[in-house]
Amino acid sequence: MSxxxxxxxxxxxxxxxxxxxxxxxxxxxxxxxxLGRHVRDGDLRLRKLRFDNSPAALRLxxxxxxxxxxxxxxxxxxxxxxxxxxxxxxxxVIVFALEGLVAFYPDGTWWTPCVMEHCDGLLRVADTxxxxxxxxxxxxxxxxxxxxRQFPRPDLIVCSAGATCDDFSAIAGRLESxxxxxxxxxxxxxxxxxxxxxxQLPNGFVAARSQVAFVRxxxxxxxxxxxxxxxxxxxxxxxxxxxxxANGVRGLLEELRRLVFxxxxxxxxxxxxxxxxxxxxxxxSDRAECLVILAxxxxxxxxxxxxxxxxLSPEAVRVYWVNPVADLRVMNLLEECGGRIGGTDHMIxxxxxxxxxxxxxxxALARMALADPMVGSSRERAARISREARALGCEAVxxxxxxxxxxxxxxxxxxxxxxxxxxGLTVVEIEVPPLSDAMLPTLRTRLxxxxxxxxxxxxx
Length: 460
Description:
460 residues, 4-stranded parallel beta sheet, alpha/beta, 18 helices
């Protein structure tokens, strides 16, 4: 029942699923089933997307779209739920090192208005709570907390403050005013001070030693709060094991990204790669299953690369994509316009590199937290993007601005200017709302122009 790798519609997946099941070659999982069942649950956007046709990709999607069920099941079986907000991969490592605790990422609700094509009503709830569309679409999180449909009320909410998005800080503050107590921990604006020892961070940035010590102390506070919730102590051996498990996920993602970025033809579509990368943040609430799913996806991609098979034309233009899109449909659109993903910075590059295992666990996590590209200067992030795009052989760069996000107002221009100057690449800035249907013609024109410009430069 093997089939040439390609992208298929939801209806085609329904037929393929039936054939694979009838042939007895598609294992069924507790969260498995045909992809179309999620439409009946309200995930209407699936009808307009094109998906990779591998069983590994189906498993990836089913795992993503059943997180709500896992969280409710965890609550029923006695686990304590920890909401890790504006964290991007640090606190979940500590959470999953403590038996009986499950971490989830409420910020991810920002995709719900897209996936459910606004029938969820979450943005309308945010409007009524004084957080209108002048804010980032992550404001959908407010409605999710209030209505408790996307996830149960957590037993503990942990949120970073300090060098974080202004929009998110305002939204989180509004959430606390609604009676949701938050355990705050602070992360400073990353910098190295003259005359003070600088510490090399996992992804190449540097920070002052005093800043690393400060964040380590903050994470000690977080750890103590989590120990109180779990009713047990977390020793260094258990936390070190948690770091090794997290590095297992990061190692698989590193291999996946290497294969996808460097192989020709492209062995995996942009949308499935984006979803896989996001698993690094909190393992989609199940670290063990996350490892299994990513391993299966890497195996599928490796087989395709070894066989010289891909899902896109070998002539597709390699595009470095900056920031995640609010509407997943735009990932399909890039490929329809003749592009492919050749590199990414979805604001989580620090969550995709190994956590140091040769230092004390909290020291390692402090270094990782400070490596977040969003807690340093925009110019520093722009320089890293420029270096990586050039090293990966990318031919163009897309900076995807998030509507209302405070950090997108000027940062996009800084990144674009830096990439043009230092890497000599063509850059386009676009803005992607939660549903981009009305803007698709304009977005298509801009992406087609980017791709054609890159092809002209090939021929020059």
